[in-house]
Design a protein that fits this description.
The protein is mostly beta strands. The chain folds into 2 domains: 100 residues, Jelly Rolls (Sandwich), CATH 2.60.120; 96 residues, Jelly Rolls (Sandwich), CATH 2.60.120.380. The protein has no helices and 18 strands. The strands form 4 sheets. The chain has a 5-stranded mixed beta sheet with strand order 1-3-8-5-6, with no helix packed on it. The chain has a 5-stranded mixed beta sheet with strand order 10-12-17-14-15, with no helix packed on it. The chain is elongated and about 75 Å long.
Length: 232
């Protein structure tokens, strides 16, 4: 039973009440796909959106968020585990890496920080370890041409290297307005080995071997443009 009254038992006024399930999650949550981006909105006072995704035990994922510029609107994002434990919380445009997840179903809850303002938001989910499904292939001696085409877009390229090897990664970016390409290299365990922007040549030495991931996104997660990556 939820009892509502005026604090002084004298004044009158209207109120709103919202109920959200954390564990178990509210019925019919929205889906967040590994490697995908979703667009959403907070449409009224107390509006809450819930998104679910599954992760393997020990997995590492990156959640990218962007909020629209509506007046007084700040989006609050809160991540919960399958048991209802809060894993992380943040506001606005951000990139959060969630490490060593316990596994199972996770829920990302979105609301206005003041529960009053309305506005739009975007969410992207990327697998770091394991990598998102169907990554692009970066072959030795070849150049991959790619593009960042929308807010929160991320491209993932995978390549294999032998233990103790040295590889060279050369990257370029287009001169699109406000676009700066961010390149980040991870090993098979999800450890970040290197990160850089724009036109560059990087030598990665004494690699431990296995599969590597090169992740590409706009540095501000908003701008769009083209890029290239060459593996030698």
């Amino acid at each position: 039973m939820l009892k509502v009254n005026a604090s002084n038992y004298l004044a009158t006024g209207g109120y709103s009440i919202g109920l959200e399930g954390i564990s178990p999650i509210s019925p019919a949550p929205l889906s967040l796909s590994n490697g995908g981006v979703v667009d959403g909105s907070i449409d009224r006072t107390l509006d809450v959106k819930q998104y679910v995704f599954n992760a393997a035990a020990g997995a590492q994922v990156q959640l990218n968020t962007f909020q629209g510029s509506s007046a007084n609107f700040t989006a609050r994002f809160t991540l919960y585990s399958a048991t209802g434990a809060q894993v992380d919380t943040w506001t606005g445009t951000a990139a959060r890496i969630e490490r060593n997840l316990a596994g199972g179903q996770y829920m990302l809850k979105v609301n206005a920080s003041n529960y009053l303002a309305t506005g739009t938001f975007n969410i992207g989910l990327e697998g770091i370890s394991p990598i998102s499904p169907a990554p692009l292939t970066l072959s030795s001696g070849q150049t991959a041409l790619g593009s960042i085409w929308r807010t929160l877009d991320v491209e993932e390229y995978a390549f294999n290297a032998g233990a103790g090897s040295t590889v060279q990664l050369s990257t370029t970016q287009s001169s699109s307005p406000n676009f700066t390409a961010r390149f980040t290299l991870y090993d098979g365990a999800g450890n970040q080995l290197d990160t850089w922007t724009g036109n560059a040549t990087r030598q990665e030495r004494n690699l431990v071997g296995g599969q590597y991931l090169l992740k590409v996104n706009a540095s501000n997660f908003v701008s769009t443009g083209t890029f290239s990556a060459t593996l030698i």
